[in-house]
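Need tokens for this chain, all 86 residues.
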Amino acid sequence: MTGHIPAARQHLIDAISTLAGRRKPISDRWTSAHAFNHVLRRCGLSPAEVGNGHPVADRAKAAAQHAVQVPIDLLRSRRRAGALAS
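Here are the structure tokens for all 86 residues:
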């Protein structure tokens, strides 16, 4: 059952919803570092956990993940474009 939401409260709810949807650069770095850790584990390595007091290592992992992911995304987009052209 839904009740009436006053206009001022609705504005607050909308503002919070908008802020919750935004990502910060630090969370993007953490996501990339976690993804790179996954790659390292699949290669049989045991990387240090992200956020374990080594911010330089976390940044390096994020940069490495980005360096690996950009060409992969480019190849995938070209394959999709080629598949659509056929």
